[in-house]
Every structure is written in C-alpha cells, then in structure tokens.
Amino acid sequence: MGGALSGYTFDLFDSVASVGNLDVRFLYTPLDGLPTFDHEKTDGRAVSRLFWTDSNWLRIRRFVRDPRPDAAFAYGTQPCLGMGLAIAQLPPKVPLYYAADTNVAGLASPPLRSLGRHLLYTSIAGRATAALSLGLTNRIALQTLGFRRIIELPVYAVDYAALDTAAEANEASKPTKADKEIEALIIARLTPAKNLPGFVSALAQDADLSARIRLVIAGEGPDRGALEAIKEQVPTLKMELLGPVDRRGVGMLLRRADVLLLPSSVEPWGIVVVEALGMGVPVVATPAVGAAVSLAGCTGAVLISEDAEPHSFVAALRRYLSQTARIAAAAREGASFIRARYDRVAVAKRLLSLVYGDRAECAPPSITG
Description:
By secondary structure, the protein is α/β, with parallel strands linked by helices. It is built from 15 helices and 13 strands. Strands 9-8-7-10-11-12 form a six-stranded parallel beta sheet, with helices on both faces. β3, α3 and β4 form a beta-alpha-beta unit. The longest helix has 19 residues. It starts with 6 loop residues before the first helix and ends with a strand.
C-alpha cells in the first residue's frame, strides 16, 4: 500500500508474485495522467488493485483483510488518512514492513505542516515488524522516528533484463558522436529540485567544457521552458531536450551514454543511479543524491561534487573528464555487483526470505539495528 506507486514497485512485487507463486494486492494512487512520471510507469499487471479514490472504509477493510495476507508492505505515508485507516485494519498478527520512502529523512524533524505525516510515521513505527532502509541516511532517520528493527534491503529494484533488451533492440540506431565528444545523460522530472537550469547555465559559461559535452535531457516538467530559453540564448550549447521517455527508452539512452549526471539539490534516493551503474555507466552527482552517496564507497564509478551548487557540479564534471578511462573501467567492472544487489528478481527473493524464512529457499537479507 502506498501513494503514487511507480513501475519500479510494481515490477518488484510482480517478481515476488511469480517467484513465490503468490497473489499480491495493491492499494495505491495511480500515476496515470502525470507525464513527468512516464519513465516510471509500467504495463498493467495481473494483480488485485484498489485505488484510494475509489474506496471507502468498508472497501479498504475488506481489501486488506480478506483473504488474510501473509504480510503487508507500506510505502510512505500518502494519503495520510487512508494509510492510517488501512494499517489499523490489518489483522494484529500480520507482519507489517515499512518500506522507507525517500522523503523519510526530511520528516525526522518535521515542520508543522508535516505534523500529520510525522505522527503517522511514529504510529507505524510502533506497529511495524521492521523498516526496510535504502541506506545510511534513511536508517538514521528511521531510528529517530522510533523504528526498533531496521533491515538494509532495497525497496526499489531494477529490471535489468528489460533495459538490456531495449538497448540491444536500438543498437543499430545509436548516433555517431564527434571525436572525443562525451554524451552526458540526464533522466529526470524537470522540477526545481533537479537544479537543471542552474547547472546548464553554469555549463554554458564554460566554453571549453561545453564544447566537449553533448547533453541529452530526458524528462518533462515545469523547468522545460527555462532550459529551452538557455538553449536559445546559447546556440553553441549542444543540448537535446527529448521530453518524456517511457521506461523502454531508458535502456536505449543508457546504452549510448558515456556518463549519467544528477545535479539535484534534493534527491533522497535516485533509482536512475542504480539503473546506470548496472548498465556500466558512470555517475556524477551532488551530495544530495542518496543512491550516489550510498554507492560511492562500493564502486569507483561514482563521482560526488563538493556541494549542490551548479559551479561545484561543473567542477566535478571537469574532474570526470580528466579521468574518463579509469572511471569508465570501474563502471564496467562494478556493473555485475550492482545488478546482484538491485536486480528485481534478486530483491524479490530477499523479500520472500524476509517473510517466509527458510521456506523461501533463498539467502536472508542482512539485518542491522
């Protein structure tokens, strides 16, 4: 159960259903009609679904209790009232695992406007069997919110096989690049938190660097107009705005990219980091990108800027260009490690082991806290 669950979540629990031969039910808010999320949408699955907008107290009660589930997973706290009601209707002995959404860190010390969500977090902490943490930042915040048992286990996973298939199908259309030209890719919702106009402006001011970079931006959002204005003002800037791409397009773009960029000022996780590293693509990111910071110590393919300021990010991009061969080699060598950790079938097996123990016939996850 959760708010606007993305395709990554559906893919993961589709694997849980197929590997474990189980029925999975979803209580959530659909992403339909939100073009900025096109790269996170997925095809329809043969699962039971109920939308918050189509439900009332009685329907929610029946949905979460009949038949009695073996376990429940809560993603985030939206919608606040609905989530609280659904969790209250779970039979007392049904284990509840809280999948820490990427906003949990900001709610450890909430502003007044987040008080309702903060209270729901603390009530979930009292009911939850365990919280599933994305990494160190989430774990610290979860401890602050009162969760007693915290398990380091990805709550989002990647269908690398689908990315590979999409990439191979489009291999013939891979564009030709100029000699020594670097294709830098950004896949993101074009919102202020992604810091894209600031970064692109700083890049455009560096004539030498911008001459070596071909910037490809996939995504849609309110900052598109600002990016188009910069492109018009600086015609020498090699920047392509693709608009929204579907999830199949992500594989094609990653296959042809030299590096993935995340200049975000706020990015508590960033699943595209895991997608890129699993495809052997290096990542340059700010310290605000949770996945990049968490994985920087595991692979030499991640370069973190000093801070989230645009000029600091441009400086990090320059450092990347000074050692592209080494970083690219590290990305290729580390791809198998990332896939083993975040592939959706592997994560599905760890979730099954968490719920069913030895009956799941797979290794249990590591437990901390």
